[in-house]
Amino acid sequence: MIISPICELLGIRYPLFQGGMAHISDGHLAAAVSNAGGLGIISAMSADKNYVKEQIDIARSETDRPFGVNVMLMSPHADDVAQLLVDEKIPVITTGAGNPERFMPMWKEAGIHVIPVVGSVSMARLVERQGASAVIAEGGESGGHVGDVTTMALVPQVCSAVSIPVLAAGGIADGRGAAAAFMLGAVGIQIGTRFLVAEECSVHPNYKKKVLKATDISTIVTGKRLGHPVRSIKTPFSREYAQLEYSPISDDDLEAKAVGALRLAAKEGDEKKGCFLAGQIAGMISKEQPAKEIVEEIMQEAESLLNGAQKWVK
Fold this sequence. Notes:
Structural class: alpha/beta
Strand order of the largest sheet: 1-9-8-6-5-4-3-2
Number of helices: 13
Number of strands: 11
Largest sheet: 8 strands, parallel
Strand content: 5-15%
């Protein structure tokens, strides 16, 4: 069994987080991953505190194990959600889309482990100084909002730059990716795309079908013109958006084109107007499985590979 500092810190069996995916990572999926021994995470996305409270209640009704909440710091409801998580005594918060500095004192005083998602060494150092318990170094292979540095290059540099635990994310969907992350210096992994096809994931069936049909070149990055690049599966929407980035359209109109596109994909399965976020690793995913099976399969394969790594040393 893989012994990791992150497991002892958070009280989980496996050093595996489920990513906080907007309109996807709800209380049911988070509970399923936590029950499997990992850390399930609810996405607060841009929702208000009532929605987040509802999902927390769902997760608590389905698991007695630790789970976390991902806070999108650019959300208009971030302040209310931040306070709600203190009131609800949530043990772990992951953050994205911004700097968590203004919430750090409140969260740390409440005894919450804050684990920001970072895409650069400088951001990892910054949140360490602010009091982060760990960081998730996410490479550009991931789905959703992405940075420029790949996981293979980012993780070891972050591990060398900070003294807090580092988890790896981006391009990880099986035990091979997990084992590679540990060899790069990470103490755990965060996985999003593979959980899109977990049986407990409530995403629209059309979304799951697109992930299962994906190949290694099925994704595209759009939004670089606006400074917020996003990786998604190639669809009529994403191809049109990519073309518009090089057209005379104004930035405001371009940004407006994407409003609601993820919800259309996740909730309605709209294959023309929806934005189906997924990482480059989607091409390796071949079937729908229970979350417990996904978690155990990944960790068992990683353990076997790490145990066998010594055969290469003569």
